[in-house]
Amino acid sequence: MSRITRHGRATSPRIALRSRTKAVVAAMLCGLMTVSATAGCGSPDVGGDSGGSAETASNVGTRTPEQIKKDGTIHIGTFADKAPFGSLTGKNSYKGYDITYGERLAKDMGVKLEWVPVDAASRVEFLESGKVDIILANFTVTKDRAKKVDFANPYMQVAFGAVSPTDHPVKKVSDLDHAKILVVKGTSQDAWIQEHHPEWKVTKFEEYAEVTSALADGRGDVWITDNTEAVAFTRQNKKFITGITSFGDKATIAPAVHKGNDPLRTWINDDLVKLGKEDFFHQNFRKTLEPVYGDTIKPDQLVIEGGRK
Prior knowledge:
Layout: E1 3-4, E2 10-11, H1 13-39, E3 43-44, E4 50-51, H2 57-60, H3 65-71, E5 73-79, E6 81-82, E7 86-90, E8 93-95, H4 97-109, E9 112-118, H5 123-128, E10 134-135, H6 143-146, E11 149-151, E12 156-165, E13 180-184, H7 188-196, E14 201-205, H8 208-216, E15 222-226, H9 227-236, E16 240-253, E17 256-258, H10 262-277, H11 280-293, H12 299-302
Parallel strand pairs: 5-9, 5-10, 13-14, 13-15
Antiparallel strand pairs: 1-2, 3-4, 6-7, 7-8, 10-17, 11-17, 12-15, 12-16
């Protein structure tokens, strides 16, 4: 037997049953998607578990330490592709010098840790828009950045280094005048070149993985980055050399918070003093950086204890 639809077409009971079944399934799926959209997806804490967060992106960055403790989770922005400082090594698993520091910071505050991956150009924006409480992403302190975010006291010191192929090494700063230079957009090297050498031929990339690939396939002659990263990269990639080990402005690296968040900045500074009494960053160096650097870089060339300036 067939029945007449409201459009005047005949349908069999079997077809009508299938239609009703599809409608029920569609409604169930819609409900599930609505629940998922409402609940959201969590990110890993320091133990690697995932969990949701009650905070919204717009208010995370302005929270005081007491508010973070009440909410139970701190959001820290870091690199996912900048070993040995911060890199994603597996599903929801990070490791590196900045990572070890972030884990200790969360422990000292007594909260769970949610890592938020950032790239060099998005670090300021993630603080300004309230996506994270703190940036721990090899963040060099500069005057321009300090106009937009607040830096705590430093925990590391760096200069620039230049990486080039071993068979075509760039060994002098004057060699850069005629080289095809590669940098990561939004880094201190990018800003320094724009200010001091706008005539240099520069190609910019969003990610560190992109710039190293470009260097490997010959799209550039030399990559300018932090000398600490340059040495780490060339120690692990024998086809390249850090031909210039130190140039440009000597600078410090520090945690950064949302502009005006003095309570959180002060808490970080106080915690740095506490960590300095333990020689925490020397221990961190031995754990995360010494296996990479060997005796090429000594701890005191890089480490700052107690937040001293």
